[in-house]
Amino acid sequence: VQLQASGGGPVQAGDSLTLSCVVSGVSIDTFKSLSMGWFRQVPGKEREFVAGINQNGDRTLPADSVKGRFTISRDNLKNSAFLHMTSLNLEDTAVYYCAAKAALGIWTKEVFYTHWGQGTQVTVSS
């Protein structure tokens, strides 16, 4: 199982950006069994949960820090998950990681995820 995150880059405060995570090495049926999550990390700090989504995408859970601004979604026909970010601010600057776990539900703890992407940098400037 390989996760490839992309879509990061430099943006201005207030801008929107969508991150993508493609999961390869698994069938569509296997991807449908994965709980997906997005995390972020800044230097010197622990990795922080951003949002999670269950297997069929009918339940999502954003962190309080991004609630109302970030939306997680998935396309189970394309083995992909997304993080749509709006109203970006300086505190959103981080490396963003997608993660997967073969289990039901939504998982908010980094330790529970078994597969990780390489991270994509999001830099918000004023």
Quick structural summary:
This protein has 126 residues and is mainly beta.
What fraction strand? over 45%
Low-confidence stretches: none
Order of helices and strands: EEEHEEEEEEEE
Could you estimate the helical fraction of the residues in percent?
under 10%
Classify the secondary structure makeup into a structural class.
Answer: mainly beta
Number of separate strands: 11
Residue-averaged pLDDT: 97
The major β-sheet equals: 7 strands, mixed
The number of helices is: 1
Report the principal-axis shape. Answer: globular
User: First CA to last CA: what distance?
Assistant: 37 Å
Give me the Rg, rounded.
13 Å
Q: What would your notes on this structure say?
A:
The protein has 1 helix and 11 strands; from the N terminus they run E-E-E-H-E-E-E-E-E-E-E-E. Helices cover 4% and strands 48% of the residues. It is globular, with a radius of gyration of 13 Å. The strands form 2 sheets. Strands 2, 4, 5, 6, 9, 10 and 11 form a 7-stranded mixed sheet that branches. The protein has a 4-stranded antiparallel sheet with strand order 1-3-8-7, with no helix packed on it. It is mainly beta and 126 residues long.
SSE diagram, text form:
Elements: E1 2-6, E2 9-12, E3 17-24, H1 28-32, E4 35-41, E5 48-53, E6 60-62, E7 70-75, E8 80-85, E9 94-101, E10 115-116, E11 120-125
Parallel strand pairs: 2-11
Antiparallel strand pairs: 1-3, 3-8, 4-5, 4-9, 5-6, 7-8, 9-10, 9-11
